[in-house]
Amino acid sequence: MVRAFLLILAALGAVPAAAAAAAEGDFLVIAHRGASGERPEHTLAAYERAIDQGADYIEPDLVATKDMRLVARHETEIGETTDVGTHEEFADRKRSKTIEGRLVTGWFAEDFTLAELRSLRVKERLPGLRPANARFDGLYQIPTFEEIVTLVRAKEAEAGRAIGIYPELKHPTWLLQEEGIDTVDLLATALRQADLDDADDRVFVQAFEIGPLQRLDALVESPLVLLIAPTGGPYDEPAMSWAEIMTPTGLAQVATYADGIGPYLGHVLAADGSPTALIADAHAAGLQVHPWTLRKENAFLPPALRRGTPEGAPGDLAALAGMVVAAGADGVFTDDPALVLSALGR
After folding, report:
1. Helix or strand or coil: residue 140?
2. What is the pLDDT along the chain (346 residues), one digit of tens a residue?
3. 196 phi/psi in degrees, rounded to 5
4. Which domain holds residue 300?
5. 144 cis-preceded (ω within 30 degrees of 0)
6. What is the CATH number of the domain that holds 200?
């Protein structure tokens, strides 16, 4: 059991005491798009399954509709995750947009009202890797942020425990500049209306951009997290690189407007699974660290942790979870919360 292994190592001084404490339950298991390894992502069903499995937080990615409603989708483009392409009445909505320098063709949430989106049904985004998830295609609607909050509160009452929400704003600068939709203001308003804007509420707000987090820092008391991609830098600060931001000096600057970072897993673990300096440097700056994303399929695992040859076959996710905890992270995003919780002995 990973938990027992970590406690033994901690007693011997081989890992930080914080890692052992994390294995005891202080380590946050964040359900990435819900239990998206078992249900189509960003559906109430995926969120509920993650909650039932014991996830500490559920993570909805938020985009906006034409009539300014926040809804949960991985991207503003919805053709990949819904059946919109089969709806003849929306055939003329297909178009191409350049989003943060990348040409994307499809259908976009911001071109639909919420009522129009209600006529669509969600489908699995990775059917080749997750054919079992595709069995649920056509069953679920796109949820609003308000519905997600309602679900969480209902499940809190049922389970008798607190459940956190960890929303991510997708492309906030692009949506504001190109579509005139201010998702920062929409989310701040939604959090205030739900009475979830205080520092002690179980809410983190995350984004890959600096300006939106700085604005949110002035609008809500919720803890804020700067996401960090594998390469490049924040879209709204083209002169900055993620490499600069991950230096001690850069992390100290992040701490002036955010409470944590959400780095790509490869930034916190070296190729051999040993920790890099990032977590220790972030902690020194007073920042929490929640890396992303643990997934069970071989396609997403390092070669040493793959089992068998099929890309969609499950590998040794428990070992990878143990490495993240031993590195001293404060939590982790995962598509498979049940497996990670089991690995931690919870």
Report:
1. coil
2. 444 444 434 433 444 444 454 545 589 999 999 999 999 999 999 999 999 999 999 999 999 999 999 999 999 999 999 999 999 999 999 999 999 999 999 999 999 999 999 999 999 999 999 999 999 999 999 999 999 999 999 999 999 999 999 999 999 999 999 999 999 999 999 999 999 999 999 999 999 999 999 999 999 999 999 999 999 999 999 999 999 999 999 999 999 999 999 999 999 999 999 999 999 999 999 999 999 999 999 999 999 999 999 999 999 999 999 999 999 999 999 999 999 999 999 9
3. -125, 25
4. 2-62+143-343
5. no
6. 3.20.20.190
CA 180 vs CA 98, 107, 210: distances in Å: 15, 18, 19
Residues 176, 319: Cα–Cα separation, whole Å: 41
- Cβ atoms of 185 and 149 within 8 Å: the answer is no
Number of domains composing the chain: 1
- What global pTM score does this model have? 0.93
CA angle centred on 100, ends 211 and 292, rounded to 5°: 70
The structure tokens listed for 119 are 């006529």
Residues in a beta bridge with 96 = 105
What is the Cα–Cα distance from 270 to 187, expressed in whole angstroms?
Answer: 35
